[in-house]
Amino acid sequence: MSGKSHLRSLMESTERFFFAEESPYGLALVRMCLPTVALIPMVRRFFRVRELYSADGCPQQLAELFGNGRLLPELPGPVAAAL
């Protein structure tokens, strides 16, 4: 009988953990702070934006910009259009 009561208490504690009502302040703080935290690496990489989205048409990989070499092969135009 104690096995069933132990299982029931485990299920009740799991249900309380996942379905308990909470105040939304923590989620609101995360929603406000997350864009700020994501902005930090974006500002650091802002000067490479021209290299990524230049008008000269030359394809550029992010890994190559950061000095890691080419990870993917660059396909010729007709092959890329066929894909």
Layout: helices, strands, pairs:
Layout: H1 2-19, H2 25-44, H3 49-52, H4 62-65, H5 77-82
Structure description:
The protein is mainly alpha-helical and 83 residues long. The chain has two domains: 1-44, no CATH class; 48-83, no CATH class. It has five helices and no strands. The protein starts with a helix and ends with a helix. The mean pLDDT is 79.
- Tally of structural domains: 2
The profile of the biggest β sheet is: none
The chain-level mean pLDDT equals 79
Shape field: elongated
Count of β-strands: 0
Strand content: under 5%
Give the C-alpha Rg. 26 Å
The chain-level structural class is mainly alpha
N-C termini distance: 64 Å
Order of helices and strands: HHHHH
Tally of helical segments: 5
Report the helical percentage.
55-70%
Low-confidence stretches: none
Write a brief caption for the model.
This protein is an all-alpha fold.
Highlighted features:
83 residues, mainly alpha, 2 domains, 5 helices
